[in-house]
TrEMBL record:
Disulfide bonds: C81-C94, C84-C102, C125-C143
Record carries keyword Glycoprotein: yes
GO MF terms, alphabetically ordered: transmembrane signaling receptor activity
Transmembrane residue ranges: 152-175
Species classification: Eukaryota, Metazoa, Chordata, Craniata, Vertebrata
Pfam families membership: TNFR_c6 (PF00020)
Coarse class of the protein's main subcellular location: membrane
Species name: Pavo cristatus (Indian peafowl)
Subcellular location: Membrane
Protein name: TNFR-Cys domain-containing protein
InterPro entries from the UniProt entry: 4Fe4S_Fe_S_CS (IPR017900), Fas_rcpt (IPR008063), TNFR/NGFR_Cys_rich_reg (IPR001368), TNFRSF10 (IPR052491), TNFRSF10_N (IPR034024)
Record-linked SUPFAM superfamilies: TNF receptor-like
Record GO biological process: immune response; positive regulation of apoptotic process; TRAIL-activated apoptotic signaling pathway
Classification via Gene3D superfamilies: Tumor Necrosis Factor Receptor, subunit A, domain 2
Amino acid sequence: MGLRAVGLLLLVTLLTMPGSGAEVCGEGEYLYEGICCVLCPAGTYVAQHCNTSHPWGKCTSCTEGRDYTAHANGLEECLLCRQCKDDQITSRTCTVTSDTECQCKQGYFCPAEGCEICQRCSQMCPEGKEIVQICNATMDLGCGLPDQGNRYLTWMTVIILFAVVFAGLLVFYTIRKCKSDKATLSDKAERGPVHKWLKYMNHPIGFVRLFLPAPWPGSQHFMYS
Ligand SMILES: *[C@@H]1O[C@H](CO)[C@@H](O)[C@H](O)[C@H]1NC(C)=O
Ligand SMILES: *[C@@H]1O[C@H](CO)[C@@H](O)[C@H](O)[C@H]1NC(C)=O
């Protein structure tokens, strides 16, 4: 490949490089047939491009309710307004500078980002969950765990129930033990921890008098000091 061929290739590359035109024109301008034209403002389109004798082209307003341009532009026609689909309602009508805004009908939702079709809202929450978010145009019915207050009450009920059952069992067992202890009163070895517990409960200083098991050697001394 000769030096001239390389030079030609370089020139062609430079000329066809994307953005080479944009660098020529200033801010708020666009390139049309080698000339920089001033952009038409939002709400209008370019009815006639500029030329060497007139750097300002001819801008014409979009048609209200039919088409729009949201930004300054070099477009030869305005953009058509969006038509809301059958499952949607118009939340904002089209103006010459903004497109139509649509949202799902009552009872339907569609995520705000990337909405394709409106989906029917969930009707109820699964068992054990409650509504934490009412369905609106952008969010489905939200379900969550019951609130903290209710959960606290539930736990309190469970704990109290357990305590009552435990106390009942203890009383029942104690009475039975007492009866069997009376039957074999002479046999001191038969006396179990429940008997000791009873003795402690009945006696004002029962704990001190009570025989303490071996693992707490210093306890009796501690109680007196
Ligand atoms: C240049 O543009 C102006 C306005 O945009 C237009 O009236 C005129 O006819 C144009 N001239 C030529 C030669 O295209
Ligand atoms: C739907 O509810 C969510 C959360 O409460 C809120 O962020 C969003 O803006 C609401 N959407 C509409 C269309 O009201």
